Amino acid sequence: MSKSEHLKQKLLELIRQSAPGTRLPTERELCEQYGFARSTVNKVIVELERESYVRRRIGSGTYVMPRDTAIRYSDDPAGTTGRFSGEIIIVYPNFFGTQLWEMVDQAEELALKHNIKLTPVKLRPRTDYSLLFSMAENSTGLLGVIMIPPGEGIPQTVYERLLQTVRRVVAADQFTDFSLPGLYGVCGDQVRQGYLLMDELLRNGHRRIGYVANEPFTPSRKELLNGIKQALYDRRMRWKGICKSPVSNASWQSSIDAGFHGTLPLLREHPELTAIFYDTLPGALAGLAALNRLGRRCPEEISVIATSGFSGCENYTIPAITTVSYPARPLIDKAFEIILTPEKEFPERFLAAPELHRRSSIGKAIR
Known about the structure:
Blueprint: H1 3-16, H2 27-34, H3 38-50, E1 54-57, E2 61-64, E3 87-93, H4 98-113, E4 117-123, H5 130-138, E5 142-147, H6 156-162, E6 169-172, E7 183-188, H7 190-203, E8 209-212, H8 219-234, E9 243-244, H9 255-269, E10 275-278, H10 281-293, E11 303-307, E12 322-325, H11 329-340, E13 349-352, E14 355-357
Parallel strand pairs: 3-4, 3-5, 5-6, 6-7, 7-13, 8-9, 8-10, 10-11, 11-12
Antiparallel strand pairs: 1-2, 12-14
């Protein structure tokens, strides 16, 4: 390997470990660090810029550029393909959701940064997981699997089968009500999320409250409801006193439709309600449309609150919808950390703290 090829490989390794926008050492600093002539360093930097790994700014420095392919090395036998340091399989449902998109996008960015092959497996209704098992068993460099569930969750037997061949499996954005060696959970603190949601309604004087379950019932949803029940208990109220919509939702069905068609019968049967809470924001968005159809005003007559966000739509509805949410990207950050540092011990579960985002959809209850 020539001097310039050796230096290029060193700098590619540095770029791989650096986030886009990171300023690289100056050419003089690189000369001192690696012991090469200034002309050699300059030649390599020019080549890296031509290949779109870096951008030079006169008077400012050389910066790492965003990239959408794996870094290539001069000593790669094929000469054309990236040399990956391992593989991570990411499993997620084949539908769009803002939280889901953010997690997958973050996983792709981290895979590029660490030069890891990220292999997607998209779940559909009636998926039997046979493809996933085959991929895990036949991969020669598999570091771990990240599982993002559909509405019904992922069966314990799937995790048990995976852990026969995979060192670490991370369940992302879901609560698993079982423990297995090698299984880690990264999710939002949904007990706290539920508590903040109900506490916000109670602090504003609401006592006649309705609930529209626009998402399927899962262990994660159970955790959310446990937090809601605790907030009620602390105010000497009971879950039994919450009016529930007769409409529920099942896996792979529209949470938006469930929000709309769940709100209509709830208010027709209980016109006295002063507040409604929804599992997620899509249900609340549709709930506003249902209120409009019934001639009810929010928040003057009925307050609305939900968990999660949806591409910022909650800020621009009329009225803007109050939400309790937690960020998605830190979940994937933690998932990668767990998988990429096998020598380190981690707790079985990492919980991201939720935050209450007050907007104009909640008003004081009219007594």
